[in-house]
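From: lab user (bench 3)
To: helpdesk
Subject: output format question, protein + 3-acetylpyridine adenine dinucleotide

Hello, I'm new to running complex predictions and I'm not sure whether the block I got back is the full result or only part of it. Here's what I submitted:
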Amino acid sequence: MPLPSASQTPSEMGAAGAQDAQQVDVAVVGAGFAGLYLLIRLRRAGFTAVALDTADDVGGTWYWNRYPGARCDIQTTDYSYTFDPELESAWHWSEKYATQPEILRYLGFVADRYDLRRDIRFGTKVLTATWDEAAQRWLLTTDNGKPVSCRYYIMASGCLSAPKPPEIDGVGDFKGEIYFTGRWPHDGVELAGKRVAVIGTGSSGVQSIPKIAEQAARLTVFQRTPNFAFPAHNGPSPADRVAALEKDRADYRAQARMSLTGVPLERATEFSWQLSEAERRQRFEKALAAGDLVAMLSQLWADQGGDLEGNALASDLLRERIRSIVKDPETAEALTPRDHPFGSKRPCLETDYYATFNRPNVTLVNLRQEPIQAITASGIKTDRRSFDLDVIVFATGFDAMTGAITSVHPIAGRGGKSISDVWASGPKTYLGLTVAGFPNLFMITGPGSPSVFSNMVVSIEQHADWVVDCLMAMREAGFTAIEATEAAQAGWARHMADCSQLTLHRLANTWYTGANVPGKAPGLMPYPGGVGPYRTICDEVVSRGMLGFTLSGPNGAAQCDDGEIVRLQPDVRLVLNMLADLNLPPLESFGAEGARGFVAQFNATRPAGRPVGEVLDGTLAGADGPLPYRLYRPATPGPHPIVVYFHGGGWVLGDAQSDDPFCRDMCRRSGMIFVSVGYRHAPEHRFPAAAEDGYAALRWIGEHAAELGGRPGPLLVAGWSAGGNIAAVTCQLARDRGGPSIAGQLLVNPVTDCTFDRPSYVENATGYFLTRSLMYWFWDLYCSPADRTDPRASPLRGKLEGLPAAFVVTCEFDPLRDEGIAYAEALAAAGVPVEQLQAGGHFHSSFTMVDVVATGVDGRAKMAEALRRFAEVEEAMPKAAE
Ligand code: N01
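Helpdesk reply: Thanks, we reran it on our side. This is the complete output you should expect:
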């Protein structure tokens, strides 16, 4: 089959090639888990389809990766198709973790059971894929047999199917045998009596090294980066997992689909600081005994995956285990990962991996200390020594995800644009399923979808179902082309970036981020927001009229509902969905007492805040009698600057307890004393009680600063919501009433004015917890309409010159957003130094729901930095508290 020449236009090529092409509705690349399931679904839906695969049989990744020790590391209870209960009962796995041959048998069994091979062209490589604009079809040229003309083209080419080149000089000079784990010979390799090298210690290396060591005369392992690994404990499937599946198979599968990883295991909800060291160790031992990747990654403590301190506790326990197995201390240290947090790089399940390094025939070469200079005719030369070898095994990994698509063949979309060019600075996709400019092209588990962060089979089934359902709906509606919009795609990129903030993947050089391939654009490729949330997003795209897609068809049929599917931060979306599911009556319908009770009850279910140096309760003098306060002291040596803090709650609700996690967090981050003031509440004490209490508290704290452990010098003031209002007012009163001196004010979502017609009040009137009607209610209880223009109620209406420097935080989905911005702008216009944080995707409670809205971390870090600048604190914070 001649290759299309560069001078041919897609239409010419289409016209020429299409004449004798195999005509199908859908062409699929790949006959692994994804390709096989697609064929089943497409056939059942009445589409004509063909799958093309370079391999001679089904299996995909399991066809190629036949190296010694190759197994799956998701348990067989979960690593199976779930679409057909009869298939599930017809197949029995022999072990907890299936070997590569058993998985290959399974896929062959599936192919036979559904008679799939007749629609698969084996031994066929697609050479080019070109969108023919005139015909509205894809034309594929192949190296074997007819070209293919298809309406829809689906890449089911996996995530890890393009092995990475060795990137070491001299490979061609080596006179011995060379093998790649990802392309292992099908008739096996004889290693007995040979001197073997393995380069690479990822999952493939960790699985193959113990097996190769058993066979080879000598094994030398060349390691660049040690990985975290823990035992697989293979054997029969665990009885409890099997029982859970068999008790209610449909429910088990449904839970898997809505879980974060595609495996229905409960995640830890307690934070590391809520557990004693003994409790933490007990959990670790339990996860270790389970021999399960998902258990170790999610069941230790809630902060293990997203927080450096929580993660370090897990990493340390895993490191300790390495030292307990590997006898030679230098080798043990070399095998100990220290350059990345646990889970940020794909961890491995191991069987005898560490113990293998105690064998007399095994040597570890630490490439960090002695890099490879070259491969020579006789072996490998590092900058310290030479190793004579008979065999070199490259377990050096893959050009992952994007490589699994771009390296298959050139793909030319609308206007001849190449997907490799579009992705030159990193993958751009909508939902990891489609790419703008490439109509009717779909990717199964593509970059931007949960894919390799999940049990692949669950994600494959979800994608295949979504695509085939989409094609059926299009056929029904008379559409023949679908394409993602640029706006939807850009929105997805932003959502991906938001989700990434919840993980520690940015702190490791891995194939997840493209860092393993020289020159590849960096960026996290799999979707880190979880399988269940991702599924609900894909479903929402459909329920919102294929939001973010242009659909078109013959006779001018066209539809485009453009927009971004997720505008909220990922955790804010989850919180708001959870609240919506509770279907609570409006807070204001409880009355003031009832609302206080409700909030107290809600707060009681929250995890305890993080430890600080000291927390003590006391009493200070308010405007009209004693007021309670709670003081948070950092663990660092004092004296510290003091921040006078006012809690939120619409002047009606709240107390030190309600804002306790925020105060603890800010105390730790800023290294400052926070004094949370218990000012009087409405309706019992209406305006100006709260404002006057705020000022009185400020004075009292200023006068008692030294006793409280405060540093001499000006105070700082901070507050959230109505507390932000009191903080702003307090600064104005302190200026006008002769002090005390204030170095800076931190206003978080402050109430600053008594008008309700700014756009944010309209756009965010409902649906974001703080509603417009709740704000009306707060104002009514606090302040009569006649008093509301008093600057002590609406500080925006006061004189703003000469106020302390301010840091003003506003959130996109908050009715109070625009009055916060207006206050910041008015302060700036009055000559006050102001910084703003306009937090996109956040809602009114984002920064104070400390342990629920993890994406608020970045904002709180900025707030703490601002306080430290205001107070002119120069010494750096201890690393862990940052
Ligand atoms: O590949 P990898 P893999 N010189 O990229 C090293 C899945 N999988 O094939 O980390 C020297 O993880 C590289 O070093 P560094 C699983 O998702 C699953 O092992 O880049 N060394 C690393 O040590 C897995 O994560 C299963 O510094 C070089 C290793 O080679 C993914 O596939 C089994 C080098 C590559 O590790 C990939 O795993 C197998 C060089 N030039 C795989 N280049 C199961 O289900 C690379 N390295 C169990």
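A quick orientation on your result: Confidence is low (pLDDT under 50) at residues 1-16. Let us know if anything else is unclear.
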